[in-house]
Write a structure and sequence with these properties.
Helix content is about 60%, strand content about 0%. The protein has about 90 residues and is mainly α.
Length: about 90
C-alpha cells in the first residue's frame, strides 16, 4: 500500500510541477513553451510491441505456474512457519 501511495504522490507532484509554474515563481528566465513530444510515425507499432511482449511474458509465467500446480511441485520455504514446525512449536 505504501508503494501505491508513493507512486500517486510522485505523479501528483509531477502534474503540478510544470515548467509554467517554475517560470511563474521566477525560477527560470526562459519562456514557458509547449515542450510536449511529438509522436514518431511508428509510436503505435512500438506500443503494440510492448503490449505483445507483456502478454507473452504473462503467458509464459502462467504456463510455468500451471505446470508447477499440475505436477504438485512445492518446496518447504513456500509454506508458512506453522506448517513446517507443526503444532508443537
Amino acid at each position: 500500500m505504501k508503494s501505491y501511495l508513493f507512486v500517486v504522490a510522485i505523479l501528483t507532484i509531477g502534474l503540478f510541477c510544470d515548467a509554467g509554474l517554475v517560470h511563474a515563481a521566477g525560477g527560470s528566465g526562459a519562456n514557458a513553451t509547449n515542450q510536449g513530444l511529438i509522436l514518431s510515425d511508428n509510436a503505435v507499432q512500438v506500443f503494440f510491441y510492448g503490449v505483445g511482449a507483456t502478454l507473452i511474458l504473462f503467458g509464459l509465467a502462467s504456463v510455468g505456474y500451471l505446470y508447477r500446480m499440475n505436477r504438485g511441485l512445492s518446496w518447504k520455504f513456500q509454506q508458512s512457519d506453522t506448517d513446517i514446525s507443526g503444532e508443537d512449536h
